[in-house]
Design a protein that fits this description.
A hairpin with a 6-residue loop joins β19 and β20. α2 runs parallel beside α3. The chain is mainly β and about 425 residues long. The strands form 7 sheets. Strands 1, 2, 3, 4, 5 and 6 form a 6-stranded mixed beta sheet that branches. Strands 9-8-7-30 form a 4-stranded antiparallel beta sheet, with no helix packed on it.
């Protein structure tokens, strides 16, 4: 029973001034932008998909009032279409098919009749058009002098439940538009990127003789067994240099957090408590944040790698789990209702180790498994509401949330 509860805990489980304080930007103060299509190649259905991807990315940037109307114009036209004459910015693009099926994109950003930014993009094929769209938004954001949004170009990896005890591991973009099943068959959960380059990942194979941590190199397709253990075997975090892992293991029936050295294969126990300690997250070089029931209910604690001292990190909520850490900030999931026979609400909260402020990030449904972006600008999470499973993006400094629904299955865990 302790192992089952532990797994459930894990599953459910740099900013302007202080990110725990709401940052609200009035929509009326944002510059307007419209999008114009100048494409000749590809059919209208594909053109519509690319247009919608561009508009969605510009909206997620949260620095513009985006006009979502589709309009066409010649790429070399000397002026914008009449409907866009009052727009502060107009993004004009042209997509075309190159040699060997290459997908080429030219863009120009127009303001007050002048081209203020232009660039060309090319990828191997049109199936990954959404990553071109994300790169365009990234570059425009950079041109506008805004905080970096490197996360827009990164890949997401998640475990999707397809039936009881069956899952598949999927690599996607942050909007779920692109999806590639990288591992299918069996019961494989908790994928975790192994490095910043996203060329490999760890995952837990639960249908082996013992729960087993595996490593898959995407470039070669080679799978390597890292470690097995009775009860539990989950990689909850990877150090910035990729050399150390935080594992949740229960070889003797008691789940604890362990530090594993990838190079030496050495394993060090970091917690040794007679209850539940799971879901470790690195916080700097020597500190680890984790979830524990040592208060009689799940809450967030920290310990030092070089000592046995344990400190309570969160003082709000009676059922707190599934945390993620970036700098001095912790985002965690808290249960906010206790309906015995109904659906309970689980919201995400943001706290700072430097202040007493607490910021609630979500409002309805079951919101879980938060993960900070590499730059701390955003949080990705899983949302379940009215039988729909979605990926959510929270732009912390813009006080905006965006949801991207999963077409089938249910997301079990996610990494960014």
């Amino acid at each position: 029973m302790k192992i089952i509860i532990s797994i459930l805990l894990v599953i459910s489980s740099l900013f302007a001034n202080d990110a725990t304080i709401d940052v609200i930007k009035k929509a009326g103060n944002l510059p307007s932008i419209a999008v114009e299509d100048s494409s000749a190649s590809y059919d209208q259905s594909f053109k519509d998909r690319f247009f919608k991807s561009i508009v969605a990315d510009l909206n997620v940037l949260a620095i513009f009032n985006v006009d979502g109307n589709y309009r066409k114009v010649s790429y070399d036209a000397g002026s914008v279409v009449v409907e866009n004459k009052d727009m502060k910015y107009v993004l004009r693009y042209r997509i075309s098919e190159g040699d060997n099926g290459a997908f080429n994109t030219d863009i120009k950003l127009i303001s007050d009749g002048n081209i203020v930014f232009n660039k060309n993009y090319s990828v191997n094929n049109s199936n990954i058009y959404m990553f071109v769209s994300h790169s365009i938004a990234f570059d425009i954001n950079k041109f506008m002098g805004e905080a970096p949004v490197e996360w827009m170009k990164r890949k997401v990896i998640f475990s999707r439940m397809t039936s009881p005890q069956k899952s598949e591991l999927v690599i996607s973009d942050y909007t779920l538009t692109y999806q590639h099943v990288i591992v299918k068959g069996g019961f494989n959960i908790f994928p975790k990127w192994a490095n910043k380059e996203q060329t490999a990942f760890y995952y837990s194979a639960m249908d082996e003789r013992k729960p087993t941590l595996k490593y898959l190199d995407i470039r070669t397709g080679k799978v390597q067994v890292i470690k097995s253990s009775d009860g539990m075997m989950i990689c909850s975090d990877v150090s910035d240099d990729g050399n150390k892992l935080l594992l949740t293991m229960a070889p003797k029936g008691q789940p604890d957090v362990y530090l594993y050295d990838v190079n030496t294969k050495n394993l060090k126990v970091l917690t040794n408590y007679g209850g539940i300690d799971v879901g470790g997250q690195f916080m700097g070089n020597d500190k680890v944040v984790f979830v524990s029931d040592r208060l009689g209910y799940p809450n967030i604690f920290s310990t030092n790698i070089n000592s046995n001292n344990v400190e309570q990190m969160v003082h709000y909520g009676k059922s707190n789990a599934a945390c993620s850490v970036h700098g001095d900030y912790i985002v965690y999931k808290a249960r906010e209702s206790s309906e015995s026979f109904g659906n309970n609400t689980f919201n995400l909260h943001l706290v700072s180790t430097k202040t007493d402020f607490i910021r609630r990030l979500t409002a309805v449904g079951v919101n879980e498994f938060p993960r900070f972006s590499v730059d701390g600008d955003a949080i990705i999470f899983i949302k379940s509401y009215e039988s729909q499973s979605s990926i959510g993006i929270i732009r912390l400094n813009h006080n905006k949330n965006f949801l991207f629904p999963l077409k089938y299955g249910k997301v079990q865990s996610i990494d960014w």
